[in-house]
Amino acid sequence: xxxxxxxxxxxxxxxxxxxxxxxxxxxxxxxxxxxxxxxxxxxxxxxxxxxxxxxxxxxxxxxxxxxxxxxxxxxxxxxxxxxxxxxxxxxxxxxxxxxxxxxxxxxxxxxxxxxxxxxxxxxxxxxxxxxxxxxxxxxxxxxxx
Length: 145
Fold this sequence. Notes:
- By secondary structure, this protein is of the alpha/beta class.
- The protein has one domain (7-139): 3-Layer(aba) Sandwich (Rossmann fold).
- Helix content is 41%, strand content 15%.
- The longest helix is centred in the C-terminal third of the chain and has 17 residues, at 124-140.
- 24% of the residues are buried.
């Protein structure tokens, strides 16, 4: 199945450098070698995505977005809402990352079009297990083009 694996760019939007490092290292440890574009706030994400033109002449369109909810400048809800309003971006799977399991937040993410909602575990081993599961997800799922 590896020969059919899609090589998609993963956009990681996370303001905490420690969490970005942990996610990056966990992805690599799980065998996920996709290109990873890392941004630190919601406005940077919106600016990047604005350059992902349907013509393909701008920034590389991500095939998967890992989006923290609590971000400076523009929060994850705003970014998610903007993504789902753009016809050339709306099919990109967006996995929301957060440190809370508040049901109101979970419901809001799904209402805005999130593909999944992942609670970032505080414990390193639990976090690595979730990232490994993400690697399996990328291995078996066909993502939209």
